[in-house]
Structures are given as structure tokens and as C-alpha cells.
Write a structure and sequence with these properties.
two-stranded antiparallel sheet; 15 helices; 391 residues; alpha+beta; 9 strands
């Protein structure tokens, strides 16, 4: 039985809808509600079957043109506000955690959120790198997952020539640790040494994660295996003993992203280290836990002075790197936090070290200094929200 066609729409051509391939146009349900945007990639046969019953706007009519323009405007607006998108992704992950069975709406949300996240990161990578340094988000699984997704995307965009591969990697990165929801909190958040029995329970979380995905109808091999094997090492010293080429590249990328984030974040049993030191450790561990190319691309994207680093300038001012310079890596954009006398600055003053002026002459980064030397935590989320860097 076919569904009634909503006014201003036409049924989709079922042959246009294929799993793991970008949609040629936006698709709506029988009530005219958007299911997936153009270029989104269906991630399961269950989702494909539902989309084939959908409709698309009839662009031969004024109404259809209006609908398409509305979707385009909404997509562009969503790309302008990473903080709002961060909240959307958080809500999507929460829905996955709370779902018990196949749900077409959740699959749509995952696909749309991932597609928008990739588009946004390609435009505002510096803003996302800053948000990933926000300590206020560190205690929430959803935000931690988003941090891992951001670092994974930065690596993955250099490895996957087709958007399909990047979408699957990002979904895997966002959902790689949802199996933690099955682990007792007393074990998951334990600050003292784990017993052998507790370690065995912890090691089951990749299997728990993949089961949740399979129950949702997500069976794509790249996504599922990318999650299942994200604790494997090329040497074979992982949870399942996979080694070498048996470890999916998606898993290796997530491993690098997870390790980098762990090293630059304060944890109950370990103090954070500076980003540049973390990159050094990642490089030294390359070709043991993961292929060197994964660490190499993260280093390339993060830069000589990683976003979030606290630096001392030749002007004796101290600030935070907020944007790397891809053309001249030694000349980042710096948000000033302390003046020459060490006094805290409350206005948003920037130093573009790639430019010289009559008063300051050439400005250089003299050194990276410990974040703890500031004596306070910069309000990064407010900086991103109010900064013109987003536009």
C-alpha cells in the first residue's frame, strides 16, 4: 500500500536510494517532515527501505522551490554555530544510549548530525579544536565522544578520498564507547587500580558498543569493526589480539584520537601534558599501536603550536593559540590572556603573529608554557560563541 503524496512533493525514485551512497536530493515523509538532507549517506538497509517510501520536493512548483531553499538555509545556519551543533550531537548520542530497538528517527539523527558535523569542521576546524579543549565538557560522555570525533575527522579527511569513508569513521568515533553504558559505574569510574576481574569487564565494552549498534540496525562493516577493534594494536597486544592489517584503519584513527585527547586532558589519576608533548609521544608510538600515517596527519592538522597551547610572545605577553597558520606554522593567531606585567586581560585582544606593525614590530612565539602557569582557566566556550572567527 503506497502512502499518500503530500502537497508539493513527488515520490522518490527507489533506484536513487542506495546504502552507503550520498542522497541525490532531500527526502521527506508522508507529512512533509525532513528525513534526510541531500548528500546524507544512509547507513543501514533498514534506513534505505524507509527512505524508498519517502518523497522529495517537486522543484517544478513554487512550493517545492521554497522547501529546497528552506532546507538549504537551515543547513547553512546550522554550520554557523558549533556550540549549538555540539548540543545537537550530545542529544543524538543520548537517544542512541536510551534506545532499545531499531528506530528510523535515531538513524536519521545520527546521519544528519554526522553530515553537518563534517561540513562544519571543514569550515571552522580551529573553533572545534578550541571546543575540544574545554574542561567544562570533560565530565560528559557525549562531549568526550565529540572530541574523539573531531580529532578522528581531522585525520580521516586526509585518508579517505570519498565522503562515504569519512562519514563512517565519524559515526564510529562518536559511538565507539557507548558500550560503557553497560559497565557498572563503580568499575568505570574507579580511580584506584582495577582487579583482573574488573579489567575483564572493562574489556567487554567494545563488544557492548557493537551490540547496541546491531540492535539499532547499523550493520555496516566499517562502522561496526571500527568500533569493535579500537583497542587493538598493530603488535597484537590489544583486547582481541588482532594485529597488523587485521586492525581496521578506522580503529587505528580512533586509537590515535583517543590517546591524544587523554594525554592533553586532566584525569583523576593523571595530570594533562602540553599538546606538543602529546604529539611527540604519539609519533614515538607510531607503527606499534597504529600506522605512522595516522599520527602524521594529526600532527599536520594540529600544527607546530597546537590550538589551545599557552604561549609566551616576544612582546612578553602570554596568550592561547586559537588558530594555526597552515601557510606559516610558526605564526599562529593568539588570544592574549596576560599583558606584559602579567595582569589578566578581560577584553578579547588578539595577536596575529604573522603580521608586523609600527608599535610591536615582528611578533614571535618565544615558547610554549604550562597551562597551569596562568592561574585560571580561560572561558573557551564563551570565546568561541562570541568570536568573529566563526563567520
Amino acid at each position: 500500500m503506497s502512502l499518500p503524496t503530500p502537497k508539493g512533493f513527488i515520490p522518490v525514485n527507489p533506484g536513487d536510494i542506495k546504502a552507503n551512497e550520498p542522497l541525490p536530493y532531500p527526502i521527506f515523509d508522508e507529512d512533509g517532515r525532513l528525513l534526510l538532507e541531500k548528500d546524507s549517506i544512509p547507513i543501514s538497509e533498514f534506513q534505505v527501505a524507509k527512505l524508498k517510501q519517502g518523497f522529495t520536493a517537486n522543484i517544478q512548483t513554487d512550493f517545492g522551490k521554497h522547501v529546497i531553499e528552506g532546507i538549504k538555509k537551515k543547513t547553512e545556519e546550522s554550520a554557523m554555530d558549533p556550540l549549538s551543533m555540539l548540543e545537537d550531537v550530545k542529544n543524538t548520542i543520548n537517544r542512541v544510549l536510551n534506545s532499545k530497538s531499531k528506530d528510523i528517527d535515531i538513524l536519521q539523527d545520527i546521519t544528519i548530525a554526522t553530515s553537518r558535523l563534517i561540513n562544519n569542521l571543514s569550515r571552522f576546524s580551529h573553533s572545534w579544536l578550541l571546543l575540544a579543549r574545554c574542561e567544562e565538557f570533560s565530565n560528559y560522555y557525549e562531549y568526550l565522544a565529540l572530541k574523539i570525533a573531531v580529532y578522528s575527522m581531522l585525520i580521516g579527511k586526509n585518508i579517505f578520498p570519498q565522503r562515504e569513508g569519512l562519514v563512517k569513521l565519524t559515526i564510529a568515533a562518536l559511538l565507539h564507547d557507548i558500550g560503557h553504558s553497560i559497565i557498572p559505574p563503580s568499575i568505570l569510574h574507579k580511580t584506584s587500580a582495577l582487579t583482573n576481574e574488573e579489567w575483564d569487564i572493562i574489556k567487554k565494552h567494545p563488544s557492548h558498543s557493537t551490540k547496541i549498534l546491531l540492535d539499532l540496525g547499523i550493520r555496516d562493516e566499517k562502522i561496526v569493526n571500527g568500533i569493535l577493534y579500537h583497542h587493538e594494536k598493530l603488535t597484537g597486544n590489544g583486547y582481541f589480539g588482532k594485529k597488523g592489517d587485521e586492525v581496521p584503519i578506522e580503529s587505528q584513527i580512533i586509537t590515535v584520537a583517543t590517546a591524544y585527547n587523554a594525554m592533553i586532558s586532566d584525569r583523576p589519576h593523571k595530570t594533562a601534558i602540553e599538546p606538543r608533548d602529546a604529539l611527540k609521544y604519539l609519533w614515538e608510538d607510531a607503527d606499534k599501536a597504529y600506522k605512522k600515517i595516522c599520527a602524521e596527519y594529526l600532527i599536520k592538522e594540529v600544527g607546530v603550536y597546537p590550538v589551545g597551547s599557552i604561549v609566551r610572545l616576544s612582546t612578553e605577553e602570554i596568550g592561547m593559540v586559537v588558530k594555526a597558520n597552515k601557510i606559516n606554522p610558526m605564526k599562529p593567531l593568539v588570544w592574549l590572556l596576560l599583558d606584559k606585567k602579567g595582569q589578566k586581560l578581560f577584553s578579547k585582544t588578539m595577536r596575529d603573529t604573522s603580521r608586523s606593525d609600527t608599535f610591536t614590530g615582528e611578533i614571535k612565539v618565544v615558547s610554549i608554557i604550562p597551562s597551569s602557569s596562568l592561574g585560571f582557566s580561560p572561558n573557551i566556550s564563551n570565546f568561541v560563541l562570541t568570536s568573529k572567527m566563526l563567520f
